[in-house]
Write a structure and sequence with these properties.
By secondary structure, the protein is an alpha+beta fold. The protein has 13 helices and twelve strands. 35% of the residues lie in helices and 19% in strands. Strands 1, 2, 3, 4, 5, 8, 9, 10, 11 and 12 form a ten-stranded mixed β-sheet that branches. A two-stranded antiparallel ribbon has the order 6-7. β2 and β3 form a beta hairpin.
Length: 432
């Protein structure tokens, strides 16, 4: 033959059939690899939740009650220093620890409980960090007494509401992006024209006074669950800088091209090299802002300059039905209103244990109360086991919400105070 037209149609079909058979055999042998890849987005959180639960079962917690002296002479700034030191418990997991051991960042809980008219300060911390926490507190408050105690939430029925007990509570979320700070203790000053010194107003005064007026059978619990973070776990610093740049209308700097990309464009796409544009004098962005906008920007920059904690906050008012007085819920609500501002940020109730619309209003309200109580006693985040509804507070904001007050803030009769700190016997005491 003078001309060869290649394989016939029959040979082509036979070859394709053999190739298709090979593909089918490959699929039959290795099909099980595909579902995990396709279902990775579903499998990943379930797997992490499973191994995190195994790790969480190994982490044991203890309760510390802080008994205050007759008068706390240290400023609130000392408590901010305590939280700065506590941030050092930050211990992120590496790849092996996260995906094989289930390790995660441990948290601690700051709690103020008004029980039958008495105010108590508690901290729930991992047992392994108990001595670290005690030493940090003693370094700033050497006069206090720290005792290990049991969980006060175990002294009431574990299923509330019930026939004899009722409750009301909520979680709290930020009014705006958490890049904006709340009103901190540095802003709680009252300037008087006839006195040169500034009179300090304690942010906790309204809350502690309200707890002191409660009667037997009433309890009010406030809980702040916090864990130290960096911009790696929560990009709060990056978000704060981005929001700041948007407020001052700072032009976004274009990302420079890599040297290899520029060489490729010059050699193969015949593009001229990038020319650095001439800089033109433009008015400073801060010159065009109002005083309110300048204050907000300065506050955001100050917030992101300090250590941050990812937090969730909630409170519960509970009591025996014969003593339950619902207007008491105004006590914590007024407290959080006092640390909120229109210009910056604040905290507002979320997930309130109340249902406003039918159907089954009473039944749904009962379920919400049980759910919030369960989250409180286990110190879980609001959407557990899913993340969400948490926010970032820095050391200054935490110190505003939780610190040790002086005698002028809360009456001595309503707060357990010690006359003298118990001391250990000297180590060189002779023993017969």
């Amino acid at each position: 033959m003078l001309f060869d037209f290649g394989p016939s149609a029959k040979e082509v079909i036979s070859g394709l059939a053999g190739y298709g058979q090979w593909i089918w055999q490959f699929i039959v042998m290795w099909w099980w690899i595909l579902p995990p890849i396709v279902l990775f987005r579903l499998w990943r959180p379930l797997y992490l939740w499973f191994i995190n639960e195994k790790f969480a079962a190994k982490v044991k917690y203890t309760f510390l009650e802080i008994n205050l002296p007759q008068e706390v002479m240290r400023p609130i700034q000392a408590m901010e220093q305590v939280f700065s030191h506590l941030w050092s418990i930050y211990d992120p997991a590496n790849f092996k620890e996260k995906w094989l051991e289930g390790k995660f960042l441990v948290n601690f809980s700051l709690e103020i409980a008004g029980i039958n008219g008495m105010v108590h300060f508690f901290m729930r911390v991992p047992v392994a960090l108990k001595e670290v926490v005690q030493s940090v507190i003693y370094s700033q408050y050497p006069e206090v007494e720290i005792n290990e105690t049991d969980d006060y939430t175990r002294h009431v029925p574990q299923k509330i509401p019930n026939r004899d007990w009722d409750s009301w509570g909520c979680d709290y979320v930020m009014l705006r992006e958490d890049s904006y700070p709340i009103k901190t203790y540095l802003q709680f000053f009252e300037k008087t024209p006839d006195v040169k010194e500034e009179k300090r107003i304690d942010p906790l005064a309204a809350l502690l006074e309200g707890m002191a007026f409660m009667k037997p059978g009433e309890q009010l619990w406030l809980q702040i669950v916090a864990k130290p973070i960096t911009n790696k776990e929560n990009d709060w610093i990056s978000r704060g800088k981005k929001l700041r740049d948007e407020l001052i209308h700072r032009p976004q700097t274009p990302r420079p091209k890599s040297i290899w990309r520029q060489v490729f464009e010059i050699l193969f796409l015949w593009r001229s090299p990038d020319v650095i544009p001439e800089t033109k004098e433009i008015p400073a962005p801060m010159m065009m802002l109002t005083d309110e906008e300048k204050g907000a920007i300065q506050a955001m920059e100050k917030k992101i300059s300090k250590y941050g904690f990812e937090c969730n906050i909630r409170f519960i008012y509970l009591g025996e039905r014969k003593s339950f007085f619902k207007p008491r819920i105004k006590v914590p609500i007024n407290f959080f209103t006092g640390i909120s501002t229109e210009q910056l940020n604040g905290l507002r109730p979320w997930n309130v244990t109340k249902v406003y619309y039918p159907p089954a209003i009473e039944e749904r309200t009962y379920i919400k109360k049980r759910d919030l109580f369960w989250h409180y006693i286990h110190r879980f985040t609001p959407l557990f086991p899913e993340p969400g509804k948490t926010f970032v507070l820095n050391t200054e904001e935490l110190a505003t919400l939780y610190h040790f007050p002086g005698k002028m803030v809360v009456p001595a009769a309503s707060l357990k105070r010690i006359r003298a700190k118990k001391a250990e016997p000297p180590t060189n005491l002779p023993i017969e």
